[in-house]
């Protein structure tokens, strides 16, 4: 499974003002609550982030910094459902159609080739490399008993 999903304490706050140079060496996505990379922010490593893992809550994202080659898929509803919008580069405004409506998102590194843990019972299976496409898969747990 891919390390650095929203389930571990890898989503740390980071503030960037528009006058600062954004280093892609950081290799993280940063979501902002205001246009122009302003407002409160959260830095995200590759992984799946549902509403409860967005530190500013759902329906607050207005701009997104995306490292070269990475993709971010914004979803209107929790659990990676509803309308979606794919970002393949930084955008200082996500647009009227997605401003303050994101409730879950997936951050994908182009080097990622593995599935992303969503929770103990499901994962996002990578079905296409670039742009990345995922389908949610339920994981069943069982025990085999030999006779």
TrEMBL record:
Q: Is rRNA-binding given among the entry's keywords? A: no
Domain Beta/gamma crystallin 'Greek key', first and last residues per copy:
27-68
What SMART domains does this protein's entry cite?
XTALbg (SM00247)
Q: Which UniProt keywords apply?
A: Repeat
- Which Pfam families does the protein's record reference? Inhibitor_I36
Which family does the UniProt entry place this protein in?
A: Belongs to the beta/gamma-crystallin family.
Query: What is the official name of this protein in its record?
Result: Development-specific protein S
Please give the organism: Embleya hyalina
Q: What is the lineage of its organism?
A: Bacteria, Bacillati, Actinomycetota, Actinomycetes, Kitasatosporales
Which gene underlies this protein?
tps
